[in-house]
């Protein structure tokens, strides 16, 4: 087990942004964190990353508080993280200087495969800059990868290719937790899906169990959210 999330609650302005959530993340899994906007996905990822601290409950990354396990965590947040003048080379140098476990070779391979242009971020499309941020996150050698809506701004055709490349180059001694509400095109890549609704965890299913029942991650998302499409 790489990460343990036990009976965790986070309070915002007197209201629970996340309520009594419990799950674990195991080595070798690609886990989807599914929910509509405002369901608690970003809060969950920030708690796991150590950027937020729970008001109740306990979080452990390989037995440690997340704030003491930062070298084991690579987090792609929902905000831009690089200056507009930076090119992929600038990003590579910046990340390598910041993190001793940054893999330059992997970064360059993924930049090439995902066709990120050699131009300043300010001249890139939203999808291109998002791909650059994803590559920078995944090029770190970590045990826990936390990806907050990494497919946002990326066209439908590219999503499957990006996830396929991400998994092909990923170190399976780690775990990926990827939040999204756009499931349909990429659901076959997930081993497990954790579902959030209104700050509560309402489902935790393995893909093989859903398929055995003639269902899937998208079907469960629609069922949980009262017919909302993905």
Automatic annotation (TrEMBL):
Keyword Nucleotide-binding: yes
Highest taxon in the source lineage: Bacteria
GO molecular function, one term: ATP hydrolysis activity
InterPro entries: AAA+_ATPase (IPR003593), ABC_transporter-like_ATP-bd (IPR003439), ABC_transporter-like_CS (IPR017871), ABC_Transporter_VariousFunc (IPR051782), P-loop_NTPase (IPR027417)
Pfam families: ABC_tran (PF00005)
SUPFAM superfamilies associated with the record: P-loop containing nucleoside triphosphate hydrolases
UniProt keyword annotation of Nucleotide-binding present: yes
Keywords (A to Z) from UniProt: ATP-binding, Nucleotide-binding, Transport
Coiled coil: none
Limits of the ABC transporter domain: 3-223
SMART domains for this protein: AAA
UniProt name for this protein: ABC-2 type transport system ATP-binding protein
């Amino acid at each position: 087990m790489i990460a343990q999330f036990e009976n965790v609650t986070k309070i915002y302005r007197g209201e629970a942004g996340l309520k009594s959530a419990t799950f674990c993340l195991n080595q070798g899994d690609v886990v989807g964190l599914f929910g509509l906007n405002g369901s608690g996905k970003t809060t969950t990822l920030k708690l796991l990353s150590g950027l937020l601290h729970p008001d109740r409950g306990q979080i452990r990354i390989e037995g440690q508080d997340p704030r003491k396990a930062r070298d084991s965590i690579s987090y792609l947040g929902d905000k831009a993280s690089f200056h507009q003048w930076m090119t992929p080379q600038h990003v590579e140098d910046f990340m390598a200087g910041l993190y001793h476990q940054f893999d330059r070779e992997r970064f360059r391979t993924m930049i090439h495969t995902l066709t990120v242009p050699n131009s300043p971020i300010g001249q890139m499309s939203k999808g291109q800059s998002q791909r650059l941020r994803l590559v920078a996150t995944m090029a770190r050698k970590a045990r826990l990868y936390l990806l907050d809506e990494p497919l946002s701004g990326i066209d439908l055709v590219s999503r499957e290719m990006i996830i396929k490349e991400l998994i092909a180059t990923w170190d399976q001694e780690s775990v990926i937790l990827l939040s999204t509400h756009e499931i349909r095109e990429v659901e076959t890549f997930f081993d497990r899906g954790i579902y959030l609704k209104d700050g509560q965890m309402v489902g935790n299913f393995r893909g093989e169990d859903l398929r055995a029942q003639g269902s899937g991650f998208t079907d469960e998302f629609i069922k949980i959210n009262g017919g909302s499409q993905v």
